[in-house]
Amino acid sequence: MNSIRSREHGLAMDAIPLHRSVGFRAQARSHSLGFRRNDPAMAQCRFALPGSRMKIVEVRHPLIQHKLGLMRRAGISTKEFRELASEVASLLTYEATADLETETKTIDGWAGPVEVKHIKGKKITIVPILRAGIGMLPGVLDLIPSAKVSVVGLQRDEETLKPVTYYEKLSGRMDERTALIVDPMLATAGTLIATVDMLKAAGAKRIKGLFLVAAPEGLARIEAVHPDIEIYTASIDERLNELGYILPGLGDAGDKIFGTKQ
Q: In the chain, what are the domains?
């Protein structure tokens, strides 16, 4: 296949070498199976793909896996899908923010002065990609209610098949913030690459992406272009089909979140 188009964002991607995308999938499966065999507790937590230049973390916590399993059901209601997307987003945020820097401050406690930890630096900015990314935003804000929100909208140019920005509103002083991109699906990575390009142009230096499911082809492509970002996902699925859908995937996440025709 020469190119793949993602229905949700309508983007084209250059073909990914089969050995590379299959390699991501093979690494994911063998590594997770290794955890199950040698340390069952670790299989319930998380793992990063070995041999990758980019930090890719598939979060295998039982709560995440259970909720994702519910989301895969055919005929799931808009209400339930929306609620589960938000819940999984919260759990992914917990994992993705585990390495935030903290600083010690002294406050007045009930029994006198006490030293406490506060997150250091400028507030995080959450970057939902329109439209499906909006469905994950409440879950992230539940965990980080003081975060800034930067919104990005992209659509496909019918002639070039490349992503074109139709909306962009970013937080100020991006160079001092951690940016959390949220989007349910990492399929071809065309949208993600364009978003990271935009954030870096605005000065962002620390960027993480949170996805409900990711395709090996998309992971290979984003690693080739932006290996310095981090990816957190609830599942590295099997592959993309000829229409750019992730298999087994979730279907059209945007339609399921907003209740539009599927």
A: 3-258 (3.40.50.2020)
